[in-house]
Amino acid sequence: MNCPYCGYGESKVIDSRPADEGNSIRRRRECLSCVKRFTTYETVESLPMVVIKKDGSRQSFDRRKVLGGMMRACEKRPVSMAQLEQIAEEIEQNLQNSLEREISTELIGEQVMDRLKAVDEVAYVRFASVYRQFKDINTFMSELNKLLENK
User: Fold this and answer.
1) How many of the other CB atoms lie within 10 Å of CB of 92?
2) 131-137 contacts, C-beta under 8 A, 24 or more apart
3) Low-confidence ranges of the chain (pLDDT < 70)
4) Which residues contact 108 (CB under 8 A, 6 or more apart)?
5) What is the pLDDT of residue 149?
6) Is 89 exposed, middle or buried, given 0-12, 13-18 or 19+ CB atoms closer than 10 A?
7) DSSP code string of 57-81
8) Sign of the CA dihedral running 116, 70, 89, 57
9) What whole-number distance in Å separates Cα of residue 26 and Cα of residue 20?
């Protein structure tokens, strides 16, 4: 690790501790040349995931988009931001663990709906109505009936 002050290539680690809820390691270092201290963070390198949209276009995965969709579905509902962030984190982790680099929006949407159904059924129906693009009241009622049957 090069020193940010003098550019020297060697330093010693003075202190290491977990950071970002255990997702990275914070290291306090001291330059062996100028003796100034600086902090570095070590994280696991994650491969980029590409989302394949319904129209066939591709874009990089963005957890904020998943979170934004859930926030809209949970507007004025008793679902905390912490719960939504936890769900988004779980979905991203699940997708990373699958080792697939190309993920369809269908797979992401199904995972969001599964988790929202467990947290808040109204939010689930709201999300499903946009995600599944209900064309009329019959498809909407069909989804509601499925929800009622599973109770």
Assistant:
1) 19
2) 131/69
3) 46, 135, 151
4) 51, 66, 91, 95
5) 78
6) middle
7) -EEE--HHHHHHHHHHHTTTSS--H
8) positive
9) 9
- The H-or-E segment that residue 125 falls in is helix 121-131
Q: What is the pLDDT of residues 79-111, one digit of tens each?
A: 999 999 999 989 998 988 888 889 999 899 999
Question: Distance (Å, rounded) from C-alpha 74 to C-alpha 123?
Answer: 5
In 3D, which of 63, 18, 64, 67 has the Cα closest to residue 44? 18
In angstroms and rounded to an integer, the radius of gyration of the C-alpha atoms of the chain is 22
Pair type for strands 37-43 and 24-31: antiparallel
Q: CA of 142: how far to CAs of 132, 139, 146, in Å?
A: 12, 5, 6
d(CA 120, CA 73): 10
Written as one letter, the residue type at 150 is N
